[in-house]
Amino acid sequence: MPELARSIPRSWTSTLKLPKSSFPPRVSPVDWTKYLKRCTDDLYAWQRRERPAEQPFVLHDGPPYANGDLHVGHALNKILKDIICRVQLGRGKRVRYVPGWDCHGLPIELKALQGLRDEDIASGPVSAAVIRTTARKLARHTVKEQMKGFRSFAVMADWENHWKTMDKQFEMRQLGIFREMVDRGLIYRKFKPVYWSPSTGTALAEAELEYKEDHISTAALVKFPLVDIPSHLSKNPLLHGKDLSAVIWTTTPWTLPANAAIAVSESLEYAIVLSEKHGYLLIAQSRFEYLQNMLKEELSVIVPSILGSELAEQTTYRPLFKGPEARPQPIFAADFVTADSGSGMVHCAPGHGMDDYEACLARGIPVFAPVNDEGKFTDKAMPLDPTRLAGKPVLGEGNTAVLEWVESCDQLLAQHKYEHKYPYDWRSKLPIIVRATEQWFADVADIRSSALRALEDVRFVPETGKQRLENFVKNRSEWCISRQRAWGVPIPAIYHRSTGEAVLTKDSVSHIMAMIEERGIDAWWTDSADDAAWIPPSLRDEAGAGYRRGTDTMDVWFDSGTSWAEIDIPIEGRSHPADVYLEGTDQHRGWFQSGLLTYISHQLGSSQFPTPRAPFKNLITHGFTLDEHGRKMSKSIGNVLYPQTIMDGTLLPPLKPRKGKGKKQPESQEPMYDALGPDALRMWAASSDYTRDVVIGKQVLQTVNTSLHKFRVTFKLLLGALADFRPENVVPYGELQLVDRIALKHLSDMVLTSQKACANFEFYKAVNTMNRWANLEFSAFYMEAIKDRLYTLGEDSTSRRAAQTTLFYIYNYLQEVLAPITPVLVEETWEHTPESIRTQSEHPLQRIISAPAPEWQDLALDTSYQELTVVHSAIKNLQEQARSKKQLGSSLQSFVHIVLPNNSGLFQQYLSELPDLFVVSSITLSSHSEALPTDIQDADWQYEETFELDGQSGKVLLFDLLLILLFHLLFIFLKFSMIQSFDFTPTAPATTSSVAPIPTVIPGSEVYQELHDVGKRTLWVVTVLMGISSLVFYTLAARAPLPKRIFHILTSLITTISFIIYLALSTGQGITTKHASIHEPHKHVPDTHTDYIRQVLWLRFVNWALTTPLLFINFALLSGLPGANLLIGIVAHLIMLTTALFGIFAGHGRERWVWLTLSCISYLVVIHHVGFHAQRAAKSKDAQIRRFFGSISGSAIAMLALFPIALAAGSLALKLSVDTETVLFAIQDVFTQGVLGYWLLLAHDSTSGIALYMEGFWSHGVGNEGAIRIADEEGA
């Protein structure tokens, strides 16, 4: 008999066409390598060979910096670029994507120096040649490591021909562009203020700054003695013989030694005031009160109004740091002076301020900056006493020394700490200064208008990027391109040894370029300083070399900005060199801008570009990556995520080991992780709205992994179902069943939406569409409807082939839409595709995408689907009710009768297909005018629910006929007893054969617990009741005197809040879903997994968190409950709600009951403090109040007991339907918020003993005393 028992299931199984596929739950690391090469290097080479050259697509790489390890920000950037390229590949284009690296600059140089010091090679100064050799080696190693990482992301690119800014060919192209700009007069040298970093010893461009919002400076109010004043003031008897001083305010006192002028505003009014301590002071009239507060004394106004225009050019003052013999300095008018802060007068140091420089230059005032490269004062800062300031850092000790000197001269009025925004060096993270030095500049003002016009035909994603880039260009007049470093491309200028005069011409640059071509760029530093070969012949004299080579290097933004020159596709016939530039949003002031300016300059210097254009056709920017708490990633915080941990799954908890039957697991088993490879990383990048900052963390990645598993399961199912299908078996569209045509309509909508989203660079919309389709329309609807046809009908039956035809189309299009996003997965599916399909299909990664057949876009199918969904939803709701009473197991036990509205012909037309579609045993139909079948009257049980179609009502009846059911049991058992289901729950794989069994449906069944008509109507009813109650309560409040309104106001607020919350819930807001997977063991058949997807109306918890404390306050005021008990009760109530929410979303394990226990304990604390203690407090009141409070509070506490009961049976145990749970909570809310409100207010207004008065602030505002009292009669 045991042998017979074992043979019977095998014979039953043989009657079913169970699909089989070799597609594994997850790909092995060995296969990763194989698939990775095919879908990247091999695919790129294929398309460069096979796709037409006249249809190129160029994505130009914004070079990452060759320093440090890759992080998720790098991954986001490179993957987005790759997705764009693959989308264009699918559109038939030949893709050109050549990766590049930015290799010059300060960070690499500093790292090279640190390495030399660590090796004790650099204890003192290090030559430029040694620095360059070390930096080059470091950059080359970093490029190699970063390239390895990028390739592991499944990025398809021309890796073998990658470029680096330190390559000789790149540097020569860069120097050629620089020569064009020199020839056009756009490069010049100037002694001018620039941003200077004392910490790194070099000039900086605006793009190299970071602004710290909370920088602390020492601000000072300083007075300068006036020498000459306007004649009408000198004749004023109040001022005769008086010493006047102009007051300035500065946040950079260290610039005072370089002061050259004071600026006023022509339109501002100034005043002369008298300070007993500081004498006669000239300030802006509107800053009078500010000065009084700073000086902490009352000031007298001597001359109330003097226009700034009267002071300008007629007033001089004596400088503080140049000695008593120094010439007086002028006061002039300037547009940048305001009275928003300070004194309304600005001290000007043209060597340390951009505005100061421009204003002084116009008046012939020389530039003076007594600060050296290290940010320390020179001897010239204070000629009379050089040692006082010389050698002291201006951002520290030097600043203090300046203020000490000013105070010793009795010219310091006040000083204070001032928090403000201040620029920092983006590399060293230390503050910078503004300092005049000899620097090389590019003239941006000359090409600015052309650059702005070139942006007109550029597409920006997001659109806000256009204004951002335009603003950066508009606000830039020149670009400081020289840096005082060794690791970079030299500025090819030579300088006269005696005069220091610079030579930079087209011819001199050409000569130097020829030398670099011959000797290499490092020779600029390594050749002898007297080597005359570098000097153009026309500048050599008989006495020897009269010129020397410069040591400045170019700004690295100039390096990368000229990278458009590496694009080798001819510009003829193309509007822009590159179709796409894509980088982070910080590049608007960096690479985007430098690329635009250099390319515009190149075009203006060439006759072949009549209309200058930008180097990019589409400019796309992405945000920064943030951790799951929204914080910027930082090593100091410890929240940096590395791409490898996402690909190998180690960022998530390890998988739970699966126990094999009869096998003992090793005691010390290595943890296994849900490693999904580069597709996990890519799915995260694609599903993120990259136009904003992108959040990544464990919760996000768990969602990504779930989505990827869903697609793997879907492909496994499709491959198994198509194992015996050949393309010649395709059934014509007209012969497909209704459900097949609906599935193709859904597929068509998904494909078209995804294709449009990808074309618009909105990949996250495409991913959302695919996920929704896979979970709902494909899995929950179509696969559920066709499983009988697939597994039980004859192999070549038209119905089965029709289902396979639909799945064949789904398989092909799903490969196409996922190809740009998860290429490794798509490559893997091709590996496992049945040979009969492979031989007649094109590789999915090589296909040119196509739109679905127009006939699939039958809009009438949407209407049919909606009608079927309405009825199906009613059927599932009734089945759920029957299951809750243990009256129904499988849905195939269901017998359904539908009473149709008069306007529905769909169901009669497709009656024969409805049982399969609804997964029930049978469907019968009737109209309202027909009597119900007698079978229904004989049923053991029945349920019914109404539905609406186009405004007309129908009815679904679910019933059970025992005799008929017994007749069908054998059929059901034969069909489903041995069907195994997928198990793609992330667990460690057990040891199995290479060929895995295929399920009848996607793993386990899915039960959707959601709001139906009853629940939705309940929400609307409560909304209306709360709205009406609020109006009634406000009306009652208006009729009551103000001291007596406290209950009215609190009760009105309760119902108003509840009205708003229920209105939101009724309109579909404040609702989310929870997912629970329940394992059900069986003795004679395989275990099953049921996925419950249940709606959670979380907004009702906000309602209770806001309204119940107000109810407790009512009780406290009525009973005299002490405030301590009230506070504890409110906090306990909030804890009760919070722990309940934790329980809802804790999964379906034991932990949910732990949270429920905590919630119940909190409920008991509420009863203790708001019930028991309030009853005790009420005993001190009269009998009338005691009785009333006992009744109303007892009713409320009892009604609140519904909360843990409904919570446990509903969202935690999943036994109550969402509708039932909604009704229970609605009853609780209507009673505690509405009924109790009416009870309280009616009793309050009609019973004199329950009158509560509040005077004082409540009735009369601040300044009036009052009390809360309970009185027997009004006015008592």
Automatic annotation (TrEMBL):
Its main location: membrane. It catalyses: tRNA(Ile) + L-isoleucine + ATP = L-isoleucyl-tRNA(Ile) + AMP + diphosphate. GO terms for biological process: isoleucyl-tRNA aminoacylation; mitochondrial translation; phototransduction. Residues 41-695 form the Aminoacyl-tRNA synthetase class Ia domain. GO terms for cellular component: membrane; mitochondrion. It is found in: Membrane; Mitochondrion. The chain crosses the membrane at residues 956-974, 1019-1040, 1046-1065, 1101-1120, 1126-1146, 1153-1172, 1192-1214. Belongs to the class-I aminoacyl-tRNA synthetase family. Belongs to the archaeal/bacterial/fungal opsin family. This is Isoleucine--tRNA ligase, mitochondrial. It comes from Penicillium patulum (Penicillium griseofulvum).
